[in-house]
Design brief:
GO molecular function, one term: carbonyl reductase (NADPH) activity
Keywords: Oxidoreductase
Strand content: 15-25%
Low-confidence stretches: 1-20
Protein name: Dehydrogenase/reductase SDR family member 4
Radius of gyration: 18 Å
Family: Belongs to the short-chain dehydrogenases/reductases (SDR) family.
InterPro entries: NAD(P)-bd_dom_sf, Sc_DH/Rdtase_CS, SDR_fam
Structural class: alpha/beta
Shape: globular
Order of helices and strands: HEHEHEHEHEHEHHHE
CATH architecture: 3-Layer(aba) Sandwich
CATH topology: Rossmann fold
């Protein structure tokens, strides 16, 4: 069981030394971030690149991908972009193959893509809406993981973006919340199998973050007052608040952390 422990310790010590000698902590990493041309995904892609990673951004719309790549490259960051609908097998394969062709490896997968076509009472969700939510938010995350893990290097990291709604479903987006609960189980299952490969899997559960998606929940004065009441830090989170945690999980600083779900919600109640 511990036959490779000495090798792992030596490798980790070397990585720690390189980090403390001034090298950016993700300088040897290649990261794929899905749905990364706006909001939380864009903040994550930007932070990983700022920390030294070579990053592949993706989105369903070509114009958004091109705009994001231009913007990040203008900042001197190493990025490329791929048009990708995560529910499309050919798109997922193109995402992986482009990453390997451009950068030669893959070390980090951030599964951020999600949809929510249903807004209202949970049991009013149609079968079509429910299936679409599960397909994009859960099934695609599983399939992308299944396809990328065989190409991922040892000491790789997988990060799923879930939601605080995974613990206590939001009344008006119940089906979306259910899909995010499923990601908690996916994280555990992937972490258990991939531990032997020295690949980690963790999950982040954001609270209410200021994005286009959250506008429906935060667009009124009454909604803001309620947020201030239930969030001890009395503010809505920023996408950058999530990006910093992802950067930590992508780095060797979290090398002994796997199978966990981290709530980033300003103290908003989620669990014991």
């Amino acid at each position: 069981m511990f036959r490779n422990l000495k090798t792992l310790l030596v490798t980790n010590n070397r990585r720690i030394m390189s980090t403390t000698s001034g090298q950016k902590r993700l300088a040897d990493k290649v990261a794929i971030v899905t749905a990364s041309t706006d909001g939380i995904g864009l903040a994550i892609a930007t932070r990983l690149a700022e920390d030294g990673a070579r990053v592949v951004v993706s989105s369903r719309k070509e114009a958004n991908v091109e705009k994001t790549v231009r913007s990040l490259r203008a900042k001197g960051l190493q990025v490329t972009g791929v048009v990708c609908h995560v529910g499309n097998k050919e798109h997922r394969q193109r995402l992986l193959q482009t990453t390997l062709r451009e950068f030669g490896q893959v070390d980090v997968l951030v599964s951020n893509a999600a949809v929510n076509p249903a807004f209202g009472a949970f049991l009013d969700t149609s079968e079509e809406e429910f299936e679409k939510i599960l397909s994009v938010n859960v099934t695609s995350a599983f399939l992308l993981t299944k396809e990328i893990v065989p190409e991922m290097r040892a000491h790789g990291s997988i990060v799923y973006i879930s939601s605080i709604g995974a613990y206590q479903p939001f009344p008006l987006i119940g089906a979306y919340s259910v899909s995010k609960t499923a990601l908690l189980g996916l994280t555990k299952a992937v972490a258990n199998q991939c531990a032997a490969l020295s690949i980690r899997a963790n999950c982040i559960c954001p609270g209410i973050i200021r994005t286009k998606f959250s506008d429906a929940l935060t667009g009124s004065e009454a909604a803001m007052e309620e947020i201030e009441r239930v969030v001890p830090m009395q503010r809505i989170g920023a996408p950058e608040d999530i990006a910093g945690i992802v950067a930590f999980l992508a780095s060797d600083d979290s090398r002994y952390l796997t199978g966990e779900s981290i709530v980033v919600a300003g103290g908003h109640y989620s669990r014991l």
